[in-house]
Amino acid sequence: MAAAHTAAGEPVIVFDSVSREFGGKGRVVRAVDDVSLTVHRGEVFGVIGFSGAGKSTLIRMINGLEKPTSGTVTVLGQQVSHLSEAKLRPLRTRIGMVFQQFNLMTSRTVAGNVNYALATAGWPRATRKARVAELLDFVGLADKARHYPEQLSGGQKQRVGIARALAAEPEVLLADEATSALDPSTTGEVLSVLRRVNEELGVTIVAITHEMEVIRSIADRVAVMDSGRIVESGPVYDLFSNPEHAEGAASFVATALKDRPNREEAARIRARTGGRLVTVSLKDSAAVGRVLGHAAGYGVEFEIVHGGMSATKDSSYGVLTVALNGDEQSVQRFIENLGAAGALKEVAA
Ligand SMILES: Nc1ncnc2c1ncn2[C@@H]1O[C@H](COP(=O)(O)OP(=O)(O)OP(=O)(O)O)[C@@H](O)[C@H]1O
C-alpha cells in the first residue's frame, strides 16, 4: 500500500484565531471561541472535551462543512474557510472522515460501500476492484466483502467506515467520535486500525472524542476544549502525567481521568488511614519505587491508596496517591525526597 510513516512534518491544518457562532440576534452561541492550533503532517492530533464543548464544530471546519464566523482555517495549503463549494470538492477527496454512527449504506455490501466511495472520487472502474480488495485486506475484513452492514459487529462496521474513508488515498483522516458507539472490546480493534493508518500509511489524523482512552492510545498531541476554547494543549504524555492543569482542563481532565481521589474519596481515605495524603505523578516509575522503598529508613509508613500505572502510545506514566504516617518531620523529609522523583501535590483536606 501507499507511503511509509512520515515523521511529524510541515503544518497541514492551521486554525488562526477561529470563532464560530450560531444563532441570531437574540441568543448567540459561540461554539468555537478564538481557537488557534496547528496539526503537523504525520501526527495524530486529539481534541477532547465534554459534550457541547465545540469539538464537532471544530472538526467540521477542517473539511469546510462549517465556515468560521471569524479567523481562517488552512488545510493542505488552502484556505478552506474562503473556498467555494466547487473548489472545496477536490480538497475534500484529500480528507477522509469517519463518523460515530458509521454512516454506511445499508443496501450495499461491504465491498459496495467502499467501491461507491472510489466511484464518487472518480476512480476508473478498472482500478476499483483491486483497490477495494486492498482496503478490505488492510482493515482485516477481506472475508466480509459480500456481507451487508447489518451482518457486522459495530467494530467491523467502523472498520468498513475507515476503509471507505481511505479509499481515495487521503492525506488527512478526520475521526468524529469514531469509537463512541462501540463497546470497550471493539473500541480496541478500531483504535489499532487507526494507529496503523497513521503509522503504515502516513496519514495525518485528527480525532475528536470525549474518551480519554482514545487520546491515550493513539494521539501524539491533544487539545482540551471547554466552552469553545482550548484550555490546555500539548503532548499527550504531558497531559496525563502532569498534576497541574488549567482551570477548565482541570475539571475535564480530573473527571475523565479519575486519576486522583476526589474530595469525598479523600475524606474517606483520610478517616481510614490518618496521616498526610500526597499524589505523585511519575514519569519514572523506578525512581518513585526506589524512594517508596526507603520509607522505613525515614521512619515513615506508606500505603498506596489510589491510582496506578498506565500507558500512552509511546510510554508509561503513573499517578499514585499515598498516605504517609510517621512523625511530622520525618514525613516532611520523605515528601521532599518523593518530590524529587516525581511531580508532587498534596491532596487538599
Ligand atoms: N447548527 C447549530 N446551530 C445552533 N447551535 C449549534 C449548532 N451546532 C452546534 N451548536 C452549539 O454549539 C455548541 C458546541 O457544539 P458541538 O456539537 O460543536 O460540541 P461537541 O463538543 O462536538 O459536542 P457533542 O459531542 O455533543 O456533539 C453547543 O452549545 C451546540 O448546541
UniProtKB/TrEMBL annotation:
In alphabetical order, the GO MF annotations are: ATP binding; ATP hydrolysis activity
Which domain of life does the protein's organism represent?
Bacteria
Q: What GO terms in the biological process aspect are recorded for it?
A: amino acid transport
Pfam families given in the database record: ABC_tran, NIL
Does the keyword field hold Cell division?
no
Query: Which key words tag this protein in UniProt?
Result: Amino-acid transport, ATP-binding, Cell membrane, Membrane, Nucleotide-binding, Translocase, Transport
InterPro entries for this protein: AAA+_ATPase (IPR003593), ABC_transporter-like_ATP-bd (IPR003439), ABC_transporter-like_CS (IPR017871), ACT-like_dom_sf (IPR045865), MetN_ABC (IPR041701), MetN_ABC_transporter-like (IPR050086), NIL_domain (IPR018449), P-loop_NTPase (IPR027417)
Record-level GO cellular component terms: plasma membrane
Q: Which residues cross the membrane?
A: none
CDD domains given in the database record: ABC_MetN_methionine_transporter
Does the record carry Membrane as a key word?
yes
Domain ABC transporter positions: 13-252
Its function, per the record, reads: Part of the ABC transporter FtsEX involved in cellular division. Has ATPase activity.
Sorted alphabetically, which PANTHER family does this protein's record hold? Answer: AMINO ACID IMPORT ATP-BINDING PROTEIN, METHIONINE IMPORT ATP-BINDING PROTEIN METN
Q: Which family does it belong to?
A: Belongs to the ABC transporter superfamily.
Describe the protein's quaternary organization and the partners it interacts with: Homodimer. Forms a membrane-associated complex with FtsX.
What name does this protein carry? Answer: D-methionine transport system ATP-binding protein
The source organism is Micrococcus cohnii
